[in-house]
Fold this protein.
Amino acid sequence: MAKVTMYTDGGASGNPGPGGYGTLLMFGEHVKEMSEGFRLTTNNRMELLAVIVGLEALTREGVEVDVYSDSKYVVDAVMKRWVFNWEKKGYKDKKNPDLWQRFLRIYRKHHVTFHWVKGHAGNPLNERVDAMAVAAYQTGDLLTDTWYEQNEA
């Protein structure tokens, strides 16, 4: 079975404010980096989107994926199984239902294990995706987080 290592990070300046994500996928000697910036969003949305984009980039189903994230929001929601209860309750009173639904669709196609890493603690790959996320929202060429702007902003 294929095994992929993924590092993700997201952030927003102002929260809400301009935000971005960085995702790094490693498979054998192959490395793929992805990042995008948005004009108005939140750090939690970008943390979650970083994982989604990484999983959606996988070209086949059933991949074993180790995700490393400094987001307690994302890691705990999955590993403590909160998101599955949120789903059963229709995401009532929960933030980011659009992204959690999108996450669960792709999550269920793979074998994903989450690992929490302390942010800004010298982990080179965590520092790399953090820098990618920040650079993405500082470029000035920002996308629109349509769901957020229509429902939360």
